[in-house]
Amino acid sequence: MAACAHLFLLLALGFPLQETLVGVSALGFNWGTITSHPVPPRVVVQMLKANNISKVKLFDANPAALSALAGSGIEVMVGIPNELLHTLASSSAAADAWVSTNLTSFMGKRGANIRYVAVGNEPFLSAYGVQFQNSTYPAMKNIYESLAKVGLGDQVKVTVPCNADVLLNTPPSKGQFRSDVKETMRQIAALLSQINAPLLVNIYPFLDLTLQTDFPEDFAFFDGTTHALVDGAVTYTNALDASLDMIIVALAGVGYPNVQVFVGEIGWPTDGAIYANVSTAQRFNQGLVKHILSKQGTPQRPGVQIEAYIFGLLDENQKSLLPGNFERHWGVFTFDGQAKYTLDFSGQGLDTNLVNADSVPYLPSRWCVANPKSNESDLVRGAQYACANADCTALAYGGSCSNVGMPDNASYAFNSYYQLNQQDDNTCSFNGLGVITFVDPSIGDCRFLIGVSRAVQTISCFSTSKEAVDVPIIGNFHLLPSELTVTR
Ligand SMILES: *[C@@H]1O[C@H](CO)[C@@H](O)[C@H](O)[C@H]1NC(C)=O
Ligand SMILES: *[C@@H]1O[C@H](CO)[C@@H](O)[C@H](O)[C@H]1NC(C)=O
Ligand SMILES: *[C@@H]1O[C@H](CO)[C@@H](O)[C@H](O)[C@H]1NC(C)=O
Ligand SMILES: *[C@@H]1O[C@H](CO)[C@@H](O)[C@H](O)[C@H]1NC(C)=O
Ligand SMILES: *[C@@H]1O[C@H](CO)[C@@H](O)[C@H](O)[C@H]1NC(C)=O
Ligand SMILES: *[C@@H]1O[C@H](CO)[C@@H](O)[C@H](O)[C@H]1NC(C)=O
């Protein structure tokens, strides 16, 4: 509250509103929690505040996160997992119960500033088949009605995050929903239009670039391209604008040209693939921020500032590897809240350092490494055992530790397993191949992590959350969105 009062005072005195604050308000972060080393939510919220991040999107209504966000003023989008859609669609009593348990109990005077409920997460993803197709809209409608009943119909908006694969592969000016979801999208658009709520679409130029062999590299970024997409009189120079306009045109095609569209997820990973490193991620996310701050909008909606939630805030080392090894490295911050690169939210071209998480409850400075005198084939076996449980994505092709060689790659694997197990001595034995060291064994960009202690955390619902268990189906899961055809 103090910050708002301060801002009001500046306005009242006639000072211009600072660009930094205005700009940041169109930008939020996805805060996913599929990790074995959760940073305590209060530390994360402190980090958000220190970086002037004013919006977050959660994938559920996690009580620990919502309690930590209470009183912060940070605008929150909570999520409803797909598995609840069927129940919420078929019973308004279930929707009432969801709203009272998972929403209103965290709001109120000193509560969390919840402004959106994402009903389902990419429920129409082709890979899911038809399972959520008929329940998403009725679930949204029921949740909206439950919100309206408790007087929150205007304050808290319902929405649904869609994968870009709800669209057919067309030029932006011909944007169209997939025929199997078209009628559902029409119903959803009608509801969103009636209640003045946005549609969310997740857009991943990184996936286009990584998974399509002839996708022009610079079209994924924001600094101009030699391979523009020419669509009638309009020339697109980046994949984001083209994707947004596809969905805007598709909405018009079902009769709702004015529905707001937010980007629910967008980002760039730093490890686990050829195009994934700190400099590409910085280039993309900084370009994104500048593009948003320019308020130039897209050709379909010129001058309408783009609103987007970056994916993601922190790395999540227990996400499914099905999409690729990069899936665990989307964070602008490492799993433990250390900024990976500079990001200037003011758009003034400054090399602004983000503020790292403070008071992270680390385990002691101890690492587990391979005894260098060990038999190499034994080390390979030991590493395989470790990697079956722990995160070894940095060792894979294109990863930050892919070139370290033996025995260092076994050391990386051993340490990852040892930290996963909270530095339990027994988990550094590996039949005598492992030894504990007090000297940081990191090699250049290949960082050997130290875990975050679970012991000192009071109530954390993170490590046992449903999301963490059922990684492949619920939770934020990236697949290739529908592909753009680029004229070359
Ligand atoms: C956050 O905003 C305040 C007030 O505008 C500013 O002084 C501070 O430098 C900003 N911090 C960051 C990390 O951008
Ligand atoms: C609250 O949300 C959680 C998961 O997001 C769910 O398991 C639970 O059933 C919800 N409560 C109600 C009353 O719907
Ligand atoms: C969804 O609803 C449509 C129209 O009522 C129906 O034809 C279709 O079979 C339903 N699909 C599923 C998976 O229930
Ligand atoms: C990051 O990836 C890009 C694209 O593959 C590559 O050109 C660049 O050299 C890489 N940078 C670093 C620091 O690895
Ligand atoms: C390493 O151990 C394997 C059996 O685990 C053995 O066959 C091999 O000869 C050993 N290599 C060396 C260099 O000792
Ligand atoms: C570890 O390094 C050895 C030797 O360079 C290599 O044969 C092996 O494939 C590497 N393993 C991993 C997981 O990177």
Structure described in brief:
The protein has 488 residues and is α/β, with parallel strands linked by helices.
Task: Please tell me about this protein's structure.
There is one protein chain. With about 500 residues, the chain is α/β, with parallel strands linked by helices. It has 2 domains: about 325 residues, Glycosidases (TIM Barrel, Alpha-Beta Barrel); about 80 residues, no CATH class. About 30% of the residues lie in helices and about 10% in strands. A hairpin with a 2-residue loop joins strand 11 and strand 12. The protein starts with a helix and ends in a 19-residue tail after the last helix. Bound molecules: 2-acetamido-2-deoxy-beta-D-glucopyranose (6 copies).
CATH topology of the largest domain: TIM Barrel
How large is the share of residues in beta strands?
Answer: 5-15%
Low-confidence runs of at least 5 consecutive residues: 1-23, 457-488
Mean pLDDT equals 88
Radius of gyration: 23 Å
Number of helical regions: 15
The secondary-structure class comes to alpha/beta
Could you say how many structural domains there are in total? 2
Shape verdict: globular
The ligands bound in this entry are: 2-acetamido-2-deoxy-beta-D-glucopyranose
Number of strands: 15
What is the CATH top level name of the largest domain? Alpha Beta
Helix content: 25-40%
List keywords for this structure.
488 residues; alpha/beta; TIM Barrel; 2 domains; two-stranded antiparallel ribbon; 15 helices; 32% helix; disordered N terminus; disordered C terminus; binds 2-acetamido-2-deoxy-beta-D-glucopyranose
